[in-house]
Amino acid sequence: MLRGADIVLQCLRAEGVDLVFGYPGGAIMPLYDALDGSGVRHILTRHEQGAVFAAEGYARVTGKVGVAMATSGPGATNLVTGIADAKMDSVPLVCITGQVRSPLIGTDAFQETDVFGLTLSLTKWSRLVRTIEEIPAVIAEGFHWARSGRPGPVMLDIPTDILKAKMEFAGPLKFTPHPTPADVHGESTFGETLIALLEQAKKPVALVGAGAKLSGAVPDLRRLLDHLQIPTFATVHGLGAVPSDAPYYLGMVGMHGTRAANMALHETDLLLVFGARLDDRVTGDPARFAPHARIVHFEIDPAQLDRVRPCELPVIGDLAETIPACHGALRHVSLPDWGGWRAVACGPERAELDPRGLAQPTIRFLDELFGRLPKNSVILADVGQHQMWAAQRYRSSCPRGFITSGGLGAMGFALPGAIGVQLAKPDTTVLCVSGDGGFQMNIQELATVRRLGLPIKMVIVDNKYLGMVRQWQQLFYQRNYAETDLSDNPDFVEIAKAYKICGQHLGEDVMREFPIAAATADVLERFLQSPEPELLVFDTHPEANVFPMVPAGASLSEMLLEEE
Amino acid sequence: MHVFHVRYRNTQGTLMRILNAVSRRGIDLPYVQAEPAEHKHRVTLLLDVNPKQIGQLYRDWHAVVDVVDVRAGAPSKEMMDLTAAWAAVPHPPASASTGDSARAAMA
Fold it and tell me: Which chain A residues are Cβ-neighbours of B63 within 8 angstroms?
């Protein structure tokens, strides 16, 4: 006879789980009681939100399912932001929460929350477990849905009496999904239509999103793009899918994308989309998005099609299958010569940043830092100005090398996310770039970093403001800096010291020297090469802005390139 | 007005996910009927939606794990009558007990 809690852990092991992140509490105590000797390592964070973000970091860098655990009530509600984040960014995640005893459900018992109901609109699949006998099937099905198709979050809510109950356990189960109707677009059909569209196109472009990476289609995509040689750009989650030195690559597109990418997207007459949702940060004003373009959309999730406007050719399916099929269809076809268009779109007159922008100290700081990172390092960016600067300056071709909360834009993601990444990749350099606002949202996870001795390299770009909000206030709210002033920030180095983590300040003036001084270079080198966790606080100008910028509701062709 | 029939396996939360695809867009639900249908379940919804919303709802419903099939149809007279009748009823229904205390209890 095994307890429900033991069965849960055995089923997790059967799904390949050896690491979970969580925070204990009353209703989930039986599961914690069973952890010892289960083969599942538990990482204690200092807040449930830290746990779910760490599980996301683990999942995002490995492609495996991340697992977070919490108790009922506030423990469960503290997971909600991470669940929403995983939904938006297609992260395979399973959250397990304890629930009050079955007879108490619905009575407003102590620490009772309807987390099943709360998360219905955020999860891909969820279950409130009603009997111990259901556990093996529920876990098998939950993991299936978390990792299948467009990956996403799954919530399993288990009452504490079921975790404590006992039964004879025959072993973990495998889940077999119900058959689904076949894709309406056969391979040959879309191939012929695509060829016809390409033959008519004079200014084709490719837009690469996260889907290309999640499906493992990056090598196939690179071969296809090398064949097509058309101007190509990426969403923030598509960064790294295309080598930044490819002659046809224009960098990031969208609200803070490069001028070249946004102009090419505005001018194109044929847009090939590979695994991207086309959200408002990519499209700008939907009514004026790629106004001359026909759209071919490669996508695994049919729910993402036609959100902006109808596409000419939807290609529904796993990109690992549809991209090679596309390449196969095009391989022996004589395509038009798009050299003239490519020369214009990728030409020097559309340089990615204003030269004065490159001299901006934070950008120089990130360039100096990124340039010293070992190959295959992983950068986590929090949310805000530093996130966009980091995305603009990211140059690696490591597909899972740039991780951020892109869809939800959840401040506080980066530090706990970096914990998950570093645990998954213990020999990899993990650089966590945060702002002073976001870092304080999960600053308690410094304790987790210290306890585990994780050599995460933490950077705070400290402008003593909620910088991105302040930028919008400056540009669109007549400089009414309402409640964005953080000039009374604590000394982050002293806080790190309290957690027994070394830290130091670096003023932005050192980044005004060309080249930077040897002493500054030495600081950066020692910071990155330390075997210990390290904090570097980059004190920067409070009113530096991120450019280019497409104002909300404007067309991509209406970029602000610098201060008016 | 458009009528949609969504067939689904009646697993935990599936009906709520179907309804949530509507409510998250701020679309009113004047008529909903859920019932067993052959070996599955079916929910019928009467919605005032534009063509773009129809496409989005179709795809969102199909993305729900246990949704089997989505079909559209024309509203029946019975549906429209029921919807109109419901709209004419005072809402919430008046209490049989007197005045303020009943209203306070329902607040």
Answer: 301-303
Nearest CA in chain A to B16: A120
Q: Which of B9, B63, B65 sits opposite A303 (nearest CB)?
A: B63
Tell me which chain B residues have a C-beta less than 8 angstroms from the C-beta of A125.
65
Asked if A145 is an interface residue toward chain B (Cβ–Cβ < 8 A), one would say yes
Beta strands in A353-416 (DSSP E): 378-381, 402-404
ipTM: 0.90
Facing B65 at nearest CB: one of A124, A301, A310: A124
CB contact under 8 A, A303 and B59: yes
State the Cα–Cα distance between residues A160 and B40, nearest whole angstrom.
Answer: 32
Pick from A557, A536, A535, A561: which is nearest to A549 by CA? Answer: A561
Q: What is the pTM of this model?
A: 0.94
CA nearest to B57 within chain A: A303
- Residue A291: phi and psi, rounded to 5, are -65, -20
Distance CA A480, CA A418 (A): 34
Nearest residue of B to residue A122 by CA position?
Answer: B17
Establish, for the pair of chains A and B, how many residue pairs have beta carbons separated by less than 8 Å: 36
* Rounded CA separation A153/A126 (Å): 9
Instruction: Encode pLDDT of A2-19 as tens digits.
Output: 999 999 999 999 999 999
Contact B12/A at CB under 8 A: yes
- A344-400 pLDDT tens trace: 999 988 865 555 556 789 999 999 999 999 999 999 999 999 999 999 999 998 999
Q: Name the domain boundary from A310, A335, A350.
A: A350
Q: Which of the listed CATH numbers 3.30.450.20, 3.30.70.260, 3.40.1710.10, 3.30.70.1290 matches domain B2-77?
A: 3.30.70.260
Interface of A with B in 149-208 (CB under 8 A): 178
Domain boundaries, chain B: 2-77
